[in-house]
Amino acid sequence: MPRYRFRDFVLSPSRRLLIRGVRELPLIPRYFDLLVLLVERRHEAVHRREIFDHVWQDVIVSDSALSQAVRTIRRALGDNPREPLFIRTVSRHGYRFVCDDVAEESDDGPWPITGNLVTTVIAEESDADVAGRFESLLDRICRPADTAAAEEQREAAEVLHTLGTDEALRRLGTRPGHPRGRALLRDTRWDVAGAGAVPLLGRPGTVAAATALIGLRLRRTARMATGRMAGASVGGGLAGVLGGVVGGVMLTSAPGSSAPPAVAAVLGVLGGGCGALGAAGVGAGLAVAETVARSQRPFALLFGAAAGGGFIGAAVQWLGRSVLATLVGLDVPVGGAIEGLVIGASAGLGYALATAYVEGGLAAPRGPRRLRSAAIVAGACALGALALTLAGRPLVGGTVHEIAQVAQSSNALLTPLARLLGEPDFGPVTRAVIGSGEAALFGAGLALGLTQRPSAKSH
Q: What does the DSSP 8-state code read for residue 8?
């Protein structure tokens, strides 16, 4: 792998270094990958879709993430977007590296690196100049939210990190608008190499800063989060249909069963509806958690999925009991809230474990990694369902059997399935197998739907 020289810069893909003179210019890994891609393909304009597929191949990010990456690279190179020397924006297409004196050479031998860009720049400026830069930038990020100035505010926050995160926070203090300023610093610290931590807890305006941070991230990725929830709902619904139809076919073909063939369609519709609703709730919780949380991602995923599942479960529980009591006069202890909470938490835990590698976006694994993620989520949901059934709390199949028992003349009794498993009646083994099976299908469908990458047109 060669290294590249252009103007007074040296770019080494193998050593992961961008150097100007004897100073290293730090870039976060994805931004470095983008610069390498543009330099390697400097004879053509690289389409935005190709950039997303190459640089963010395992995650889904908003379009603004690419704009931010290019802005950061331009700042490192000292480039001007209005009169670009290095990176030109190709309207409605992508970007092109336009420097015409790029030389490729062997990447052997050490380089003298005596410092980095941040410390060198500050050392070369007077105290008054540094103070003036801080004040100007802090004033910009503390202004009220303005959509037109959002990118300028993010750029100001990024520059503050390059000047020194700790010093920026010290100077920020409690000036008017400091919660929004702290939220911007917190949100942009992930995009500046070497940026320090920006704590929220125990600082002035904690609640206001946290609220502003959540608002920033949701506004930037609201469309993606909505798409994730819809994909999860479709995946869970299809899994529910599959589980219901397969269960219905097995029921009608089991020895001693009186269930008509139509029961497969009925159970498929019921399973699809429950799966879609449950996955919508859990998927919404996961999408929001993945959007707003980065430093505590596993905990946020667990909490978000449990909250979404519990909410939908409680709503279904209330609606199910009301419908049965009102229409057919049956008083059946239909569950939902606890079941949704447990299955949601299980899905969140499995998803967090399966996508622990993710940084800076919504997980979008491909190929075998995607199937592995679905298997892990499915296994976690199956374990959660097993715990519920051992505690005497049935899921959809078990609830259908209980309703059929109360109704007496129902053809949906699942006792014939128990005989296939060697039990004379619908006992603990049957409950565990059916509950774990339907939860595993739900988890797999949820994960596959949630991680579906958007179409190429969206980029």
A: T
Please give the Cα distance from 34 to 141 (Å, whole number): 27
Query: Which domains, ranges and CATH numbers included, belong to the chain?
Result: 3-105 (1.10.10.10), 125-204 (no CATH), 223-458 (no CATH)
Q: Which residue has the tokens 């930038």?
A: 137
H or E element at residue 17: strand 17-20
DSSP for 137-174 reads HHHHHTSPP-GGGHHHHHHHHHHHHHHHHHHHHHHHTT
Amino acid type, 318 = W
User: pLDDT per residue over 311-363, tens digit each?
Assistant: 999 998 888 777 777 766 666 677 788 999 999 999 999 999 999 988 878 99
pLDDT on residue 255 = 78
- Which pLDDT does position 257 carry in this prediction? 75
Query: The sheet that has 17-20: what strands, in order across it?
Result: 103-105, 3-6, 9-12, 17-20, 23-24, 115-116
Q: Are 412 and 401 in contact (CB under 8 A)?
A: yes
